[in-house]
Amino acid sequence: MTDELTVSVLGTGIMGAAMARSLARAGHTVRAWNRTRAKADPLAADGVHVAGSPAEAVESADAVLTMLYDGPATLETMRRAAPALRPGTAWVQSTTAGIEGVAELAVFAREHGLLFYDAPVLGTRQPAEAGQLTVLAAGPAEGRDRVVPVFDAVGARTVWAGDDGAQAGATRLKLVANSWVLAATAATGEALALARALDVEPSGFFDLIAGGPLDMGYLHAKAALILDGRLSPAQFAVTTAAKDARLIVRAGEQHGVRLDVAAATAARLERAAGQGHGEEDMAAAYYASFEEHPDA
């Protein structure tokens, strides 16, 4: 088999659309579908065939990549695709679906004879557009000749976390990583909100920690989005981050671990969404610190 594949991308939101473009740039034949077709149509300019249904999108595919909102949305979409799925097709499941969600998707894969790869990614809009994501992958050796070219097209690095996707080894690692990302995002927003309340210039805070162990590039990146009013288009949306935070809390509960910071972060994100910031970058959780929208 050559490295040029026919790849179906189901879900063309922030991440899925970027991944579809990366696959097309790498020379693969890409067929894409999205529930709201208007979000997928611009991909035609990048050489992607936009399908009218999940079944049309997966017809004759070597690999199917799903990047949808959550586990239930992914399962419903794959059920719609089922009539056109060929046994032996590789399924790269990149939705952050949680441990229970991945288990349900793996059952579907087994029932339909698919080679199942639990393959969430680390990264947001910019690295996705550049094909520089980190892919966390778990799945059988048997079909890796069909998924490694996919991973190489969308990512700069692949970290293998086991040879059985049903065990959700990659998703477990993703939840741990996301717990840190979400905590750092919430802490950034709270520090800036407190600085505002106490009439402390953010630059004074940044100068204080500059070059030391408390300094970090991520702090500056997210703070800049808030301070410069660049929360749209989102790198990673508030509503999606809230969903991931709840999956993290749920995973902790199931394994006897209380995650107070993750639970509080989920609440902050949900409060920001309720204030109208749901489609903005997750840094907009900053606004959850205020009863009323602060002046820019």
What can you tell me about this protein's structure?
The protein has 296 residues and is α/β, with parallel strands linked by helices. It folds into 2 domains: 6-167, NAD(P)-binding Rossmann-like Domain (Rossmann fold, 3-Layer(aba) Sandwich), CATH 3.40.50; 172-289, Orthogonal Bundle (N-(1-d-carboxylethyl)-l-norvaline Dehydrogenase, domain 2), CATH 1.10.1040.10. It contains 12 helices and 9 strands. Helix 8 (169-197) packs across helix 12. The longest helix is centred in the middle third of the chain and has 29 residues, at 169-197. The radius of gyration is 20 Å and the shape is globular. The termini are far apart.
- Cα(first) to Cα(last) distance is 55 Å
CATH superfamily of the largest domain: NAD(P)-binding Rossmann-like Domain
Shape: globular
On the 0 to 100 scale, the average pLDDT is: 96
Largest beta sheet, briefly? 6 strands, parallel
Structurally, the number of domains stands at 2
What's the total helix number? 12
Helicity level, as a percent range?
Answer: 40-55%
Strand line-up of the largest beta sheet = 3-2-1-4-5-6
Instruction: Sketch the topology as an H/E string, one letter per element.
Output: EHEHEHEHEHEEHEHEHHHHH
Count the strands? 9
Would you tell me which CATH topology of the largest domain applies?
Rossmann fold
| Weakly predicted, low-confidence segments | none
Beta-strand residue percentage: 5-15%
Q: Report the radius of gyration as a whole number of Å.
A: 20 Å
CATH architecture descriptor name of the largest domain: 3-Layer(aba) Sandwich
CATH class identity of the largest domain: Alpha Beta
Structural class of the secondary elements?
alpha/beta
